[in-house]
Amino acid sequence: MTRERHCLPLVRAEIDTYSQPVVFMHQDCHVCRAEGFRALTRVRIACGGRSVIASLNVVTGAGWLGPEAAALSDAAWAALRPRLGDMGQFSHPELPEAASLIRAKVYGERLHQAQFATIIKDAMAHRLSDLDLAAFVTACAGEHLSTCETIALTRAMQEAGRSLEWGEGPVLDKHCVGGLPGNRTTPIVVAIAAAAGLVIPKTSSRAITSPSGTADTMEVMAPVALDTAAMRKVVEAQGGCIVWGGALRLSPADDILIRIERPLDFDSDGQLIASILSKKAAAGSDRVVIDIPVGPTAKVRSENAAEALSARLRATAREIGLDLAIHVSDGSQPVGYGIGPALEAMDVLKVLRRTPDAPGDLRERALVLAGLLLEMSGETAGVERARVLLDSGAAEHRFMAICAAQGGFAEPAEAPYRIPVEAPRDGVITAIDNRLIARVAKLAGAPQQARAGVLLMARPGTLVQRGQPLFEIWAETPGELAYARDFANAQKEIFRIEVPK
């Protein structure tokens, strides 16, 4: 069989498959028939000295793609970079070595660093399908990664990317394990630390299972998709930055795993630790504060769970050379007033600008975390020093300078569509369900729609009357507004309201 029998001209499908290379071929295509390709088959495509392994989607009708060409998703097109009409050569890829290792993990075997490195290498080379990766993520969930395996996975993920260096002196970082809507302390902490003359090159992620990640919120106010050279210029000029880590490829394997975890809507302690600490080490940080909110509807539900997570974080950090401080905080209710990128940005700015309506809980949380970082750098009274930097306006000034250096500051905009959700009865609010209120914000469009989310109008301890607004849903389209409203109205325990005895 000649080489041409395995070739087809390549066209662009103009379909976003969320970083997964996908190839579309007609069921009557001669290559499909010759090679025995079926739907979801892993296919190797070579073109112009480059190659990619893609998942096959089969077109069955006489529609947009005939049997005479193959169409590439955005991710596959970016990997191959063909010119329109270039020929692609198709073949079966070799079975990835990682496949047997994932199977071993599914059946409970413990893996060492070299084996994790093989899985990471094959994942980054797109030799693993999303089904393979989902099996790996699931096999590592719960308590299925030991501390030794967590350390091994962290090292494998760190070594798969590149690491930054910042010269002499402490390099700071801060991270929250998540699960607490509105807990957007990072921009405030970075501003305070940088105003104190410290180095804090903060790389942040976009939302995985929440209505907003730090990068999503920061992007409302300034560009975050900086490359390494641009990031370095910001840090050299201002001492700190808040950028999206995905653009830097410091721990690229983590971005692949996050893509799988997002639709699954879970992550495990071991993978959470490997994700956090591999990125901190790769970013060049050596002193890190970790915030662990604990509450009945937070990601970490109990003090015992927080202690177990803290122990594994400390053990892993020690092995990879990070000085770690852990702050266990109250995760019983959302922080601030806003949930969603723009709404959280508004809260951040109110704290930095010291306005009378600034959320006090967000302010105090940020001061405590900034104080811990300052003390790790030699300050004796970190919280007091942080308070002076915030109250004097020095933190606000530094934050605005960081935004300008990253590409320019923009004020957060309000959503065009809003509707209140009212109290169904008189009583005292005794609790807010973090997961349900976050779900409302996501159904309203957050974080993809930056102005979407939830504005809290009442907090636990408040006496409310029937018909009084509890929160307001913000959306960018009427359809998303109605979808979120219907979900909110169907839930009985987003706000727990009890009659005073």
From TrEMBL:
Keyword Glycosyltransferase present in the record's keywords: the answer is yes
Q: Which SMART domains match?
A: PYNP_C
User: Residue limits of the Pyrimidine nucleoside phosphorylase C-terminal domain?
Assistant: 428-495
Instruction: Fetch the Pfam families from UniProt.
Output: Glycos_trans_3N, Glycos_transf_3
Q: Which Gene3D superfamilies match?
A: 1.20.970.50, Nucleoside phosphorylase/phosphoribosyltransferase catalytic domain, Pyrimidine nucleoside phosphorylase-like, C-terminal domain
EC assignment: the record states 2.4.2.4
Give the enzyme class. Answer: transferase
Keyword Transmembrane helix part of the UniProt annotation: no
Which keywords belong to this entry?
Glycosyltransferase, Plasmid, Transferase
What catalytic reaction does the record list?
A: thymidine + phosphate = 2-deoxy-alpha-D-ribose 1-phosphate + thymine
Q: Which InterPro entries match?
A: Glycosyl_Trfase_fam3, Glycosyl_Trfase_fam3_N_dom, Glycosyl_Trfase_fam3_N_dom_sf, Nuc_phospho_transferase, PYNP-like_C_sf, PYNP_C, Pyrmidine_PPase_CS, Thym_Pase_Put
Q: Which domain of life is it from?
A: Bacteria
The record's NCBIfam families line, in alphabetical order, gives: ARCH_P_rylase, PRK04350.1
Q: Which family does this protein fall into? A: Belongs to the thymidine/pyrimidine-nucleoside phosphorylase family. Type 2 subfamily.
Q: What is this protein called?
A: Putative thymidine phosphorylase
The scientific name of the source species is: Leisingera aquaemixtae
